[in-house]
Design goal:
Elements (H helix, E strand, L loop, with lengths): L1 E2 L6 E5 L2 E4 H19 L9 H27 L2 H5 L14 H19 L3 H26 L13 E2 L7 E2 L2 H20 L8 H18 L17 H22 L5
Parallel strand pairs: 1-4
Antiparallel strand pairs: 2-3, 4-5
Length: about 260
């Protein structure tokens, strides 16, 4: 049995200013993605440093705006009627991966239109590096001691003393390993093949939704919502259309004769 190592979520405090590990890890994830995209310049004739600078900025805004707006829309829609400004209170806790994903899709569409490049070509490049950012986010979840797992008897189970004294799955670590490291490896191995536009994006959506949906069976449901439908969590339900879109893109890429 392991015990959660209580970690101060504040990385640095300067007077009343507090800098949290979670925010730093989000920033680190964006920087990692930026560095990996810069390495893609030599493999893509349409990529330049200036374009990557813009792409990272647009995607970062998509994550921030989409993550918060999606969290309110998906999890607390009633709050919109009581306080419409809750959609843009970015300093408050609460983010949705699926909302952030929608924000990034919109950001990619804006970028693609601005530079007259294929939406799917851009999406594939973003999909290839995104898992590293996700890994950083899940590490932030672990440091915060949130999104912990359900009660278990596995030998690597962990007690989260700030929750209770029961042994639980360290589900944040599962997600870090699956959605982050393993997904990054699989996509980069797959990218070594000659692929049509949309193949990588489809693979990302399919694999992420499978990993996320699977881990949700071991993760404690959100306290505010519990099981939403037939023992399924909100995260699993939101992953279903994500999976379907991934299958569509993947099959479309296989039918498309144009090689990326």
């Amino acid at each position: 049995m392991l015990t959660y190592p209580k970690i101060n979520p504040v990385a640095l405090q300067l007077g009343s200013l507090k800098i949290y590990w979670y925010g730093l890890l989000y920033l680190l994830g964006v920087l990692f993605c930026y560095g990996l995209l810069l390495r893609q310049i030599k493999y893509s004739s349409w990529l330049t440093k200036t374009k990557i600078d813009d792409l990272i900025f647009y995607c970062a805004m998509g994550i921030i705006l989409g993550g918060r707006i999606g969290f309110v829309l998906f999890y607390f829609p009633a709050d919109i009627w009581r306080n419409p400004l809750s959609l843009i209170t970015f300093w408050e806790p609460g983010r949705s991966f699926h909302g952030g994903l929608l924000g990034v899709i919109i950001a990619i569409a804006i970028f693609a239109k601005k530079y007259y490049v294929s939406f799917l070509r851009v999406a594939d490049k973003v999909a290839l590096v995104t898992p590293i950012g996700l890994a950083c986010g899940r590490l932030g979840n672990f440091i915060n001691g949130e999104l912990y797992g359900r009660v278990t008897t596995v030998p690597w189970g962990m007690v989260f003393p700030h929750i209770d004294n029961q042994v639980r799955h360290p589900s944040q670590i599962y997600q870090l390993l699956l959605e982050g490291i393993l997904l990054f490896i699989l996509l980069n191995v797959y990218a070594q093949r000659k692929l049509n536009p949309g193949a990588l994006s489809g693979a990302f959506l399919i694999l992420y939704s499978i990993f996320r949906g699977g881990v949700e069976f071991l993760r404690e449901p959100d306290v505010s919502h519990g099981f939403v439908y037939a023992n399924l969590t909100m995260g699993q339900l939101l992953s279903i259309p994500m999976f379907m879109l991934g299958v569509y893109l993947f099959l479309r890429a296989r039918r498309n004769a144009t090689i990326s």
